[in-house]
Amino acid sequence: MALQRFLVQGQVAIVTGASSGIGRATAMLLSEAGANVVLAARGATRLFKVADEIKKLGRHALAVPTDVTLGTQLDALVNRTISDFGRIDILVNVAGGTPPTAALAVSDDDFDEAYHFNVTSALHLSRAAAPTMAKGGGGSIINVSSAMSHQVDSGFVAYGAAKAALNHMTRLLAYEWAPKIRVNAVAAGATLTEALEIISSMEGTKEHMAQRTPLARLGEPDDIALAVLYLASSASSWVTGKILEVDGGAIQSVWPIPIPNGLP
């Protein structure tokens, strides 16, 4: 049956940013679809809690506290996965983010940090996992990007530029590693993760954002996780190098708080 192709039975998946939000939802959904999941994030307590939830579903889950900005820890994450499971089939680079800041207030170091967190870390982990994926017959890498990679608004020069770079890195890796490894990305729109919920809890902001979204609501982490599952599974076996936009149909930024550019 065609629906069986959406399952990832017995596969091994690494998910970064897995302690909350999109990462947690992705890890949970991949486990429901049959995968054994290796969870990575900085917050150990919450990470182990997610692992326990997955184990209750009858799946294997391994929590490996990891700071994705440190290459040595990313290498250790891959080595631990190989040691425990012997293979890597799916890698989901979720961890990332940069606070909105007016361009005049973004230092060179801030800009470098945005690229390192959102782009370099994903490249490092993908590069570390790719040889094992290829030896095992292939695999799928999914990078979680952002609608701000192609939309415009004040305050997002570091974040948006980094996510745009992540998108094109996705295309370049997909070309270079085909046909063994597929590489795709999900450009997520305004999604109710903890970071956005702080903003959307302000009076009127959630309604404002929903009104600017054609589907009239903000995204939920599961909306993004479902797209990731499609790209991770054999249902998307003829898809690589693509950026899947999951954003409620928004064609412009729905950010609710104007950020002054600071120009005289």
Quickly describe the structure.
This protein is 44% helix and 15% strand. With 264 residues, the protein is α/β, with parallel strands linked by helices.
Task: Explain what the structure shows.
By secondary structure, the chain is of the alpha/beta class. It has a single domain, classed as 3-Layer(aba) Sandwich (Rossmann fold). The protein is 44% helix and 15% strand. It contains eight helices and seven strands; from the N terminus they run βαβαβαβαβαβαααβ. A seven-stranded parallel β-sheet has the order 3-2-1-4-5-6-7, sandwiched between helices. α4 links the parallel β4 and β5. α1 packs across α8. The model has no long low-confidence stretch (mean pLDDT 97).
Total of domains: 1
**What is the residue-averaged pLDDT?**
97
Q: How many strands appear in the DSSP assignment? A: 7
CATH topology group:
Rossmann fold
Number of helices: 8
Which key terms come to mind for this protein?
7-stranded parallel beta sheet, globular, 264 residues, alpha/beta
Q: What's the arrangement of secondary structure elements?
A:
Layout lengths: L11 E5 L4 H12 L3 E6 L2 H13 L4 E5 L5 H15 L4 E4 L14 H28 L3 E8 L10 H21 L3 E8 L5 H7 L4 H7 L9 H12 L10 E4 L18
Parallel strand pairs: 1-2, 1-4, 2-3, 4-5, 5-6, 6-7
